[in-house]
Design a protein that fits this description.
The longest helix has 20 residues. Strand 6, helix 9 and strand 7 form a beta-alpha-beta unit. Helix 2 packs across helix 11. This protein is of the alpha/beta class and 299 residues long. Helix content is 51%, strand content 14%. The chain binds dihydroflavine-adenine dinucleotide. The site of dihydroflavine-adenine dinucleotide (FDA) has 24 residues, from strand 4, strand 5 and strand 7.
Length: 299
């Protein structure tokens, strides 16, 4: 079965863009800002919060990076204008981190400053390991001046726990996720249970520190364990939230919401949906079945 799943993962990258678009449409709000706003409004009407992301990453020149920053800035304007209960997520390489660290710093600082003026918040997503240190540096530099900015910790990284021990001293605001990029075994845990174990070890460290944490997962085992930890440790509700991706485990999302916990959905939109969609399709356990049904025309 795992051979079959691995084969499916390889097939995903060979699929025509239109097929990728078809299978991944539930993960993306749409191509326009208006589409993103509509989805956030629907979520807000159910008492669910959002973080909005203009899709795109790994830009190759300053103009592209500035365009991306301008679009992110428009999201902040839209949040105010439409009174949305949402904040902003950005990818460091979309802001130019792979071109020039100082330039990316200036770009992200501008967004964080603007968000600060609106009493809003910017989450800096974490990308693959060549950018881990650069992203932490970017975050730390901005955090000395502005507190309305947060980082992401990937529990599959062997270094993650010690990163958190260090970041706790600053009072960092976290999103904790498993991590989605393909990393070498030397730096990343590969086993499902060892990633979960590290996730919970890190979550406990974060909750003990009293720093704010976004518990980002759709894994029922982790969510149940987080519920238990929160109860055992008597963690106040203003110290954490749950986070999920648009189009994934809406049943669980609604349960967490009904249980009275804060839940935030990552709402990506924009024209650059391909790389994000491929990542989502690869981690969808139903993907193998969908592809087989599609190939053989089974309804
Ligand atoms: P896991 O992958 O084991 O999924 C648990 C269950 O959820 C599956 O069994 C399945 O039922 C369901 N599921 C998961 N993905 C699905 C999909 N695509 N389609 C259908 N069902 C699916 N990563 C990163 O490296 N940097 C980042 O900045 C972020 N940011 C981020 C924000 C938010 C809000 C979330 C929720 C996640 C991220 N991630 C991320 C992604 C994260 O690292 C991870 O890849 C996914 O959340 C999937 O991991 P789970 O913990 O859900 O476990």
């Amino acid at each position: 079965m795992s051979f079959f799943n691995n084969a499916i993962v390889s097939v995903t990258e060979l699929m025509p863009k239109s097929v990728v678009g078809f299978f991944s449409r539930k993960y993306i709000a749409g191509e326009s800002l208006e589409a993103g706003i509509k989805v956030v409004r629907e979520l807000n009407s159910k008492g669910i919060l959002a973080t909005m992301d203009v899709l795109g990453e790994s830009v190759t020149n300053n103009t592209e990076a500035e365009n991306a920053k301008n679009k992110a800035s428009q999201v902040l304007d839209a949040i105010i204008k439409h009174n949305l209960n949402a904040n902003l997520s950005i990818k460091p390489t979309q802001m130019g981190l792979s071109i020039d660290e100082e330039f990316a710093f200036a770009q992200v600082l501008e967004l964080v400053k603007k968000a600060d003026g609106m009493k809003n918040f910017v989450r800096i997503d974490m990308e693959d390991s060549p950018y881990t240190d650069k992203t932490f540096n970017l975050f730390k530099k901005i955090f000395t001046e502005y507190k309305n900015v947060g980082v992401v910790i990937q529990a599959y990284l062997r270094r993650a726990h010690s990163d958190v021990v260090n970041l706790n001293k600053l009072g960092a605001n976290y999103r904790l996720c498993k991590g989605i990029y393909v990393e070498p075994a030397g730096i990343a845990y590969k086993g499902k249970q060892e990633v979960r174990d590290n996730y919970l070890k890190i979550l406990k460290e974060m909750l003990t520190s009293g720093n704010y944490v976004g518990i980002a997962t759709h894994d029922t085992y982790l969510i149940d364990s987080a519920y238990k930890l929160i109860k055992e440790m008597n963690i106040p509700k203003d110290k954490f939230e749950f986070q999920m991706l648009l189009g994934v485990r809406e049943d669980l999302r609604d349960k967490i919401n009904a249980d009275g916990y804060k839940i935030r959905i990552y709402v990506p939109f924009g024209k650059e949906w391909y790389a994000y969609s491929i990542r989502r399709l690869k981690e969808n356990p139903q993907m193998a079945g969908h592809i087989v049904k599609n190939i053989f025309g089974i309804r």
